[in-house]
């Protein structure tokens, strides 16, 4: 089990309170699809993903990004209990969605980068380290039920 | 990363010794080893019967092995020889690049199991480089 220090928890929670989940979610997913185009393989039904502007402006990308980041918000609330919190989602991603968990790591890094673009100097190395730990732990929790 | 003349010799010679077993080794590397050790790789085959001994997996292992045999025969021009497969992986299959390392590793393990005497450190290194070079070509058009 991953253990977060009190400082790490405080850092994560305080930053999260200031995140516009709808906006950031769309940006996170959009960047994933732009920077790692092979991740588009999961989103054939999303319509136009043919260019950076098409992806970043795509309403389905924004909606799904919001959904994903909202779920991530659950992680912030249950930092001590991530495996149980994401057990069902883990099964879903394995059995129904067939998503390679490598993608969770890629998405986690996109979260960090978008947070950095939004919070710039406030996204200190310590803040990044706490978030890095969280995104890794969430990725592992989501991969935990894979078989 | 460039394959030296010694690397090419090692790879060709090993592949020659494998002979007609390439298909069987491909299946073993893919099914018995890659899927078993790295279950996440199975996410790319939801349309397959993945039970032990599956004919689909065996056939696919042979397909992969045949492609590698072709690569061995064209080591001086991997991008040319693997161009169609490179397109396939980039535009259709879009297998995350990390998985090429996983399969390559399992291919090495398979070869080491079946040909321990030939699998010297030098040959091991050459094969690792070769699989890495093939993986690079297959992911070269990803972005």
UniProtKB/TrEMBL annotation, chain A:
Q: Which residues form the Globin domain?
A: 3-147
Please give the SUPFAM superfamilies that the UniProt record associates with this protein: Globin-like
Q: Does the keyword Phosphoprotein apply?
A: yes
Q: Which GO terms describe its biological process?
A: hydrogen peroxide catabolic process
Q: What's a single GO MF annotation on this record?
A: peroxidase activity
| Record CDD domains | Hb-beta-like
Highest taxon of source: Eukaryota
Q: Which UniProt keywords apply?
A: Acetylation, Heme, Iron, Metal-binding, Oxygen transport, Phosphoprotein, S-nitrosylation, Transport
| Family note | Belongs to the globin family.
Q: What is this protein called?
A: Hemoglobin subunit epsilon-2
Which organism encodes this protein? Mustela putorius furo
Q: Which gene encodes it?
A: LOC101682595
TrEMBL record, chain B:
Q: Which domain of life is it from?
A: Eukaryota
Record flagged with keyword Manganese:
no
GO terms classed as biological process: hydrogen peroxide catabolic process
Q: Which PROSITE patterns match?
A: GLOBIN
| Alphabetical list of InterPro entries matching this protein | Globin, Globin-like_sf, Globin/Proto, Hemoglobin_a-typ, Hemoglobin_oxygen_transport, Hemoglobin_pi
What are this entry's molecular-function GO terms?
Answer: haptoglobin binding; heme binding; iron ion binding; organic acid binding; oxygen binding; oxygen carrier activity; peroxidase activity
- Keyword presence, Heme: yes
Give every Globin domain span: 2-143
CC annotations in GO: blood microparticle; haptoglobin-hemoglobin complex; hemoglobin complex
UniProt-listed Pfam families: Globin
The record's keywords, sorted A to Z, are:
Acetylation, Heme, Iron, Metal-binding, Oxygen transport, Phosphoprotein, Transport
Q: Which PANTHER family match?
A: HEMOGLOBIN FAMILY MEMBER (PTHR11442), HEMOGLOBIN SUBUNIT ALPHA (PTHR11442:SF48)
Q: What is its quaternary makeup?
A: Heterotetramer of two alpha chains and two beta chains.
Q: What does this protein do?
A: Involved in oxygen transport from the lung to the various peripheral tissues.
Q: What is this protein called?
A: Hemoglobin subunit alpha-1/2
User: In which organism is this protein found?
Assistant: Mustela putorius furo (European domestic ferret)
